[in-house]
Amino acid sequence: MSTDFRHAVVIGAGLAGLAAARVLADSFEAVTVIERDTLPSASTPRAGVPQGRHVHGLLAMGAEVFEGYFPGLRAELGQAGAPVWDWGEGLCAVLPHGTPPPTPMGMPIQTFSRPLLEHVLRRRVRALEPVTLRDGLTVTGLRTAGPGKVSGVHVKDSDGEDAIVADLVVDASGRSSHLPQWLAALGLPTPRTLTVDAQVGYASRTYACPDGQSRPSWMGVLQPLRAPDFHKGCYAIQIENDTLHVTLHGAGGTQLPYDDDDFLTFANSLRGPIADTIASLTPTSAVRRYARTVNRQIAYHRMARWPDGLIALGDAVCAFNPAYGQGMTVAALEARLLAQMLRSRGSRMPLDGRDFQTAGPPHCLVMADGNHP
Question: Which H/E stretch holds residue 84?
């Protein structure tokens, strides 16, 4: 462990922030995770993760990386009720030309809610000796120690304002990141931002099976969107607590449901079994909508100057439409890259933030798709 670089600050206690904190705990004497939300003590959605109320998926590579840093994670999720099933055998895929028969693929997946995964990881990270998690605290800017050097963050809460000194600051604050403005305050140019908007929105709710009623024969239903012909679709999966989580998709300005009747009407406009299934189940949540699905990449890796003592990762750099199921896996791969770079530096050398931005977030999508060694 380096004696010169003792304290790291992570902004954001979402999946990217928790994964970063986990690997930083191996190299820093102290790691402080700062979260604006007041974090729940149970597996429940929170305001800072509005997409957490919708169906989530963790790609096989992401699951492997998380299991490596949090041994026994799969078993712990299983104990919480998260089912494991074969993708080819358990998925009812409603495709334009029909529904393929169930076919075992030898590709087991585990399905769970985003709040459950975050809750389990948060509990694991809290238990790490170097880590302190401070919630209800808002980062208002970067602290500097001279030109081109970040030395911590400025924060505020109900008690007032303060500064936290750190050798490394990690921005994992997600889509709501204020890093471009903070860099501008340091005299750096505004980075280029690339966006791709397919105008996709979601409406989700959860269901329970009434006592005595059989659960669906499938573990998941997928009816994908396909331009230009199919503007409606869905993804439904069985998750923990014998719950069915249903997300309806609409593209190109398709009106999303607001209430119970609208939700069932939308489902009835789809092919496949989803409408008949949910008609006989008991809703356990309100209809929740989400439309912040723009794909956005901020080109930090192309900035000619980058301050020492700072890195950015996760949705703060590259945010994907959640439909692709890539976000959580990219966060895991970024944490792995961070761990590799920390191990490779000399015992008295700081992490080169610009090297991380160049090697990291924009390129992790390739690895998430499995096309990278």
Answer: strand 84-86
